[in-house]
Amino acid sequence: MVGSATPRVSATVVLSKPALQRVLDNLGNSGFQLIGPTVRDGTLVLAGIGNISELPVGWALEQKPGSSRLLRINSTDYFGCTVGPHSWKRYLFPPQTDLLTAHRNGKGWVFEPSPDDAPPFAFIGVRSCDLHAIAIQDDVFVNGNIRDPHYAHRRERAFIMATNCNTAASTCFCTSMKTGPRVHSGFDLALTELPECFVIEIGSEAGSDVLAGVDWQPASAFDLGRVSQLIQRTERQIQRQLTTSDLPKLLYDTIDHPHWDVIAMRCLSCANCTLVCPTCFCSTVEDHSDLTGSDTKRTRVWDSCFILDFSHLHGGNSRPTIKSRFRQWMTHKLGAWIDQFGRSGCVGCGRCIAWCPMGIDITEELSTLRSLGAR
Amino acid sequence: MSTTVLLDRAATADPMLPYMATVRAIRPEAYGISTFSLEYDDASVPLGFAPGQFNMICLPGFGEVAISICSDPNSPKIMEHTIRYAGSVTRAIGRLRVGDSVGMRGPYGTPWPMQLAEGKDLMIVSGGIGLAPLRPVILEALHRRSSFGRVLVLYGGRTPQDLLYTDEFEKWQNGGIEMYVSVDRADETWKGQVGVIPMAFYRTRLDHRNTLVFSCGPEIMMRFVIYEAMARRIPKEAIYVSMERNMKCAIGFCGHCQLGPVFICKNGPIFRFSQVESFFGREEF
Prior knowledge:
The complex is a heterodimer. Chain A is of the alpha+beta class. Chain A has helices at residues 19-29, 89-92, 128-141, 149-157, 174-177, 205-209, 221-237, 249-253, 259-266, 272-276, 322-341, 351-354, 362-372; strands spanning 12-16, 33-40, 43-48, 59-64, 67-72, 96-105, 108-113, 121-126, 159-163, 189-193, 197-202, 216-218, 283-289, 295-302, 312-313, 316-317. Chain B is of the alpha/beta class. Chain B has helices spanning 2-12, 88-94, 114-117, 135-143, 169-174, 219-231, 264-267, 273-276; strands spanning 19-30, 33-40, 54-59, 63-68, 78-84, 101-108, 121-127, 151-157, 177-183, 193-194, 211-216, 239-242, 258-259, 262-263, 270-272. The relative contact order of chain B is 0.13. Chains A and B meet through strand 6, strand 7, strand 13, strand 14 and strand 15 of A and helix 1, strand 1 and strand 14 of B.
């Protein structure tokens, strides 16, 4: 049981906390670049890590509308911080992707696809909300008729080490969106952090393989009970709610509601919510050419429906006001997304609430629209 | 087996990568509007398009634009695109000469439902440059004139100088197409009708049980076209409109062209009116 043998898929094992380092080493030695939560620039970011000490041990992230603060706490948890402003889309659908180059060749052009030299990523500590967010972006980029090769290249090679949440922020509402806090599928390994050990569910062959040479023991019924208790405790911490039963209809019925004007008085149209959102996928295409115009690089960069240029059309703009742009974002996220992809575009991670400089709360605005009724 | 190979190719090909195309002809249509005939340089690029579909045309350093294909779908080798010089990309295209190169990929989008129109009367209502995506419908109808009942073209422009394809109107009429052309503001040369194009409905008689309406033009125009058509008891399922929004990718990734639940690029640009009715003409939506 212990030592070189690897556990079978769907088994649950127990690891001592320091043994996680060995798992990360195995991943690193297999060519993965490890990406995990770490404290940088005064907040929690997702960045390259190598050692478990780089995980945010002893930190908590206190979040509320318009506020996200790192706090020093007396804890030895590696995965005790809830989600920060970064999400994994940063690595699967980066803020800037090189699409192609165009090189002038006499009177014509030679178009060449830009190679993606990104290494395969191992995501360490993906929470259930973010795991659902990845699945939602899969709908957009690879599950349709046309596949995005850039996203597919990164997504197919990604190793996912998920984590069950042992704490929730005040901005969390995954229970409403049915996206957490328990991880159910779509991972290679799923960790639950108990005070003295990790309980790990093996989700795939790749997940099993990285436990080679790691000291593990099969989880006992007692361990599994503690895992369930922990997740239930997290569930009870989640206070924020969003009712989804009347979506998307409620949003379609309230297109002309005056409450959008009230929200627009607070919204700065800064696009923070779309940048921190783990599912927002809008992008624009930019050409960068040298001074002679003979070499051009075409890139895809994150865009936002809050940007005025976004809906520019000859002869005007189809969404010239902040009201119309906020309405587009929220109606798409919570409503139209369901028609487009068969599920909501919101995973209840609460990032848009915490990172809105005005503290606009999507759950509160929806419930206000509902209580004021259709206009 | 061959299907598998095709699928593999589609899976590995980069959908944003344009092919080289050469400008074969440029025909001025109106002030600031010309028709560009474009041909792919690489003979292996799969050809073929349906009326109403569009291509993404690019000039490196300037960017890409979505432009409707306005030529005959029966001769897909050279595709014509009527372009108004409106933004930075279209203005740069406007500076091209015959023999110059552009990048092009496509065709994209849903076509006009030509098959549904067979055996029925077809009413084409357009304004300004909105005639461009309907020209393939007219050319197709001319090829198979007997497949359709009456074919009517209601076409309006701001001034006589803004009308497109005027030199072809006689040929279309001789081919059995009823033309009603009007302008908003006439000048001393104009001998035709004056007024906005929805008014042309009052000059026609329609069989509402057997007519399909295809409309493309400014949204305000289409709104009144739909009103006039429905006032004549044409069901909204028989009315088709072509919608337009900012587009960056044409393949459903960039998010720019959304209108409520639809992506104009992949669910449209041609919609049955009943598909978009709840969102059509909603202010700033």
